[in-house]
Amino acid sequence: MNCRKKCASSESCHCTCCSRGRAEKTKWSDLPHKQKNLIYALVPLDLGLKAAAWHFLYHLPKERIRGPKALWTLITTLVGTFGPLAFLLGGIKKDSAE
């Protein structure tokens, strides 16, 4: 490996080319209040979107859903906020009577 600077000691290494230069995880107590407030706002939003998507997946008949229910359940569970949004915006067929 070609480091720009030679790592003199394992304690003071800050290079990105060796395993000694790994960044430490940020602790919750070290986050600024703005970031904490953003998380406090986005987590309930994400959970609400997932709950709404799961509600519709459970209660709607399969004829009203585009694609298999099992696939949408996986997508809404595993794809963060965008999975439930995709289902709620495009996975539910509109009524033909409207």
Q: Care to describe what's here?
A:
Keywords: Membrane, Transmembrane, Transmembrane helix. The chain crosses the membrane at residues 38-58, 70-92. With 98 residues, the protein is an all-alpha fold. It has a domain at 32-91. Helices cover 48% and strands 0% of the residues. It is built from three helices and no strands.
Feature tags:
mainly alpha
Please outline the helices and strands.
Blueprint: H1 33-59, H2 69-78, H3 82-91
Helix pairs in contact: 1-2, 1-3, 2-3
Shape: elongated
Instruction: Report the sheet with the most strands, covering strand number, pairing sense and barrel closure.
Output: none
Count up the helices.
3
Name the average pLDDT. Answer: 84
Pairing-aware structural class of the strands and helices?
mainly alpha
Q: Over all CA atoms, what is the radius of gyration?
A: 23 Å
Please report the total strand number as a whole number. Answer: 0
Determine the strand fraction and express it as a percent band: under 5%
Instruction: Write the element-wise H/E pattern from the N-terminal end onward.
Output: HHH
Q: Could you list the spans in which at least 5 consecutive residues all have pLDDT below 50?
A: none
- Amount of helix: 40-55%
Terminal CA distance reads 65 Å
Keywords: Membrane, Transmembrane, Transmembrane helix
Protein name: Cardiolipin synthase N-terminal domain-containing protein
Short description:
The chain has three helices and no strands. Helix 1 runs antiparallel to helix 2. It has a domain of 60 residues.
